[in-house]
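Wed. Picked up where I left off yesterday with Class I SAM-dependent RNA methyltransferase. The coffee machine is broken again, so keeping this brief.
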Amino acid sequence: MTHPSNTESSSPTAQDGAATELVVDVGPIAHGGHFVARHEGRVIFVRHGIPGEKVRVRLTDSGESSRFWRADVVDVLEASDDRTRHFWPLADSLAAWRKGGPPVGGAELGHVTLERQRLLKAEVLAEQLKRLAGLELNVEVEPAAAGDPRSNSVAGSDGETGLGWRTRASFAVTPGGRLGMHAHRSDVVIPVHEMPLALPGINDLRLWDIDLRGISRVEVAAPANGSRPLVLLAPEAGTDARRLNRILGQLPHEVSVASFDPVGGDVLQLRGRTWVQESAAGHQYRVTGEGFWQIHKDAPATLVGAVTRFLHDGGYLLPGSAVADLYAGAGLFTAPLADAVGITGSVLSVEGSPGTSRDARKNLHGETQVEIVQGRVERVLRQRLRSFDALVIDPPRAGAGKAVVSQLIESGPRAIAYVSCDPASFARDLGYFRNGGWRLESLRAFDLYPHTHHLETVALLVPAA
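Structure written out below (tokens, as returned):
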């Protein structure tokens, strides 16, 4: 498909005084949701394009001394067959820039068909594995719930939209007190009146109708099981109790509300509970405040299914097995691991956050085969020397890192299930494992963040010898 344009000159053109526009050919996708283009030998990381397109871009970050520039697509001159109408005008780069400003972040692939999105994510994963782990491997990116043996989900199936999956959402607040979201890599806050990626339970709160003056940030958790949502408010310095009470009075009465400190993590009850009740793998989980929980409504079942299947089928997760769940959070993996090993086995559950570790203690209360320890993974492994049949690790986006990988190898497990939300840090860590005498036995990838560049992987690692 080709869309006509007034000019197709590749020379830089100034718009609105300062902004510069160029015509470029969009190249391959890069990690981070950008596509690689070039202008006079300089690399430009372009957002909102598709490989093979000819587009007009607006430079958003440039300088003659910069190694690369950044840009948003503002017009499509020659479109890919995989381009589709963006589901969210505020996140649509073309529509946003026509109105004079940048799009909101968080839906940077919404202009691409879901099938092509997954192919692009697979390309990113393959490139990171080759560059950082020295491994040539192509892995299909599967839809959410594909890791759950109870699911019949099929990639690209009729009716699949990739919308309404977020159980958590983070919002900023405009200077005028309206709910908003940041533009990509910007302090600009754009007012929003919907969040199409979120569950109805979040949109039904209609937070955009509330006067949020005195609040700097809003976090919302709406469990997929339909239980009581939680709204977290981060007050600005000087916001008094009367202002908080006014905001409280505008929120639905059945919603729990708390204030929180984004830096210290302290949570103060304002109404109802300071936690939400989540459900997964036949268990109930209490998750307090900003405590970590998988965002996609189907992610817990997907990831638990993939991890336990890898370990069980390999003979590493059986009645009587000794396993550890590292970076365990509130115990998403700990509980099904405890089910699998039974009372004759053992599960060591390690989490660094004190509040989240307390949640894990409550969630696993009564499971005598489970030991909950709060602390750094490498320290706990040094202090609790024992033999493990398997380890499950689900580190933060930065990955485990070289020192922790070395400690994991030294602990001598028979297998490690590695859950990752970042292909670059995973590939880097996989390289460390390979250098330490381990190999990748199996790898699956899941599209748990539709319409964004993010993906999740589950890997089974075993000693090479």
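Quick read: The two ends are 53 Å apart (CA to CA).
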